[in-house]
Specification:
This protein is of the alpha/beta class and about 375 residues long. It is about 40% helix and about 15% strand.
Length: about 375
């Protein structure tokens, strides 16, 4: 029996993009395993619920990102006797007797080093050693592949692009006129707001969005422009939130905090426009989720975002509030164009599939095992 282990310890500490990627990949991979293959999910003892209930799992004591991780983790994993380890959180154990596959989701920590605290600097500071150590490297967009080649000097043939995808639950949802929903204590009405979904932090570039909204309001004071910010508070978020008041937008912006499940699906389906002004994204999953739900979408023309949205969304320079205001104003008042983008979005999102990602990832595992058998 060939045992493939996947490091999912981060699940116990953080519910973010890497945990979502790991969960989605495992769920899609289980039905595709050959009879002589076994998938073992490595979770931390602090995990209250299984990452994927149908998967076989084992619990480890070593916390993710711990300063002694490279000493303790190799021993714990060796006792599970894997034929191969997949580390979706960038950094594999360096001392090992089995091949390792790593996933590099983005290089934001190199583009924006100020986002890292001391612990994160120590962890992500191992990235050069990680790419040298790994037998294979997965990344989730061509843009990030190019970034890895440029910033880390990795030969192109060592990197495999395997796209992430939106969950199948994100589909067009026909809401009745005037539909309302209360989320985080705020009552929202469909088709009356623009939407941003992500952590409130500097690289998400929310100030450009706020300044564009101010421009739109100044141009058309009678238009009921409104923006909903859906996302957990992140690093250096206070200046962003303070800017809302400084721009006189307190009555034009609603914050609803982190949103998941049906509430998130409703937001995507109910928004008049979805906006992603990020300065840098390794993939930009919320934009793809919005497209899957038929939300007319505007994203930054940078990093992976044009690659992900194709011709199903409009593009704007991330640091040009006037350009954003022009597109927002146009799309807000142009119902025919919104309908056209709403039609294109699900078609573009359907090009990405977790089943395809799982099949390609298993193929890569088998290639690595074949070379190291």
């Amino acid at each position: 029996m060939t045992r493939i282990a996947i490091d999912a310890r981060l699940h116990a500490y953080r519910q973010g993009g890497i945990t979502h990627y790991t969960r989605s990949l495992i769920k899609a991979m289980i039905p595709l395993l050959a009879d002589d293959e076994e998938l073992l999910v490595l979770e931390h003892v602090r995990s209250r619920t299984p990452l994927v209930p149908t998967a076989r799992r084992t619990h480890l004591l070593t916390p993710p990102h711990h300063r002694l991780e490279q000493i303790c983790l190799p021993i714990e994993i060796m006792l599970r006797r894997p034929a191969l380890l997949h580390s979706p959180d960038f950094i594999p154990p360096f001392l090992r007797t089995y091949p390792a596959v790593i996933t590099i989701h983005d290089l934001a920590f190199l583009h924006f080093p100020e986002i890292l605290d001391q612990a994160a600097q120590r962890y992500y500071g191992q990235i050069q050693r990680a790419v040298a150590s790994a037998e294979a490297i997965i990344t989730i967009s061509q843009a990030t592949r190019d970034d890895i080649i440029d910033r880390l000097g990795v030969p192109p043939e060592r990197i495999t692009v395997i796209y992430a995808a939106a969950d199948e639950r994100f589909q067009p949802w026909s809401l009745p006129p005037g539909a309302t929903r209360t989320i985080d204590g705020k009552t929202l009405t469909a088709d009356t707001f623009m939407l941003f979904v992500s952590t409130i932090e500097p690289r998400k570039n929310i100030p450009t969005l706020l300044r564009a909204l101010r421009i739109c309001c100044d141009r058309r004071p009678s238009a009921n422009y409104h923006l909903v910010l859906a996302g957990a508070r992140g690093w250096l978020d206070q200046p962003i939130l303070t800017l809302i008041g400084e721009l006189g937008l307190s009555d034009r912006v609603t914050r609803v905090g982190f949103v998941g499940g049906d509430d998130l699906h409703w937001l995507y389906a109910a928004c008049r426009i979805y906006l992603n002004p990020s300065r840098y994204e390794g993939f930009g999953l919320p934009a793809l989720e919005a497209l899957a739900c038929g939300a007319p979408t505007i994203v930054s023309d940078t990093s992976s975002l044009p690659e992900v949205v194709g011709d199903a969304a409009w593009l704007a320079p991330p640091l040009d509030p006037v350009a954003w205001a022009d597109l927002i104003e146009h799309l807000w008042h142009d119902e025919a164009t919104r309908r056209d983008l709403a039609r294109r979005g699900p078609q573009q999102a359907a090009r990405f599939s977790w089943t395809t990602a799982a099949r390609q990832t298993l193929h890569l595992y088998r290639q690595v095992l074949g070379r190291h058998g």
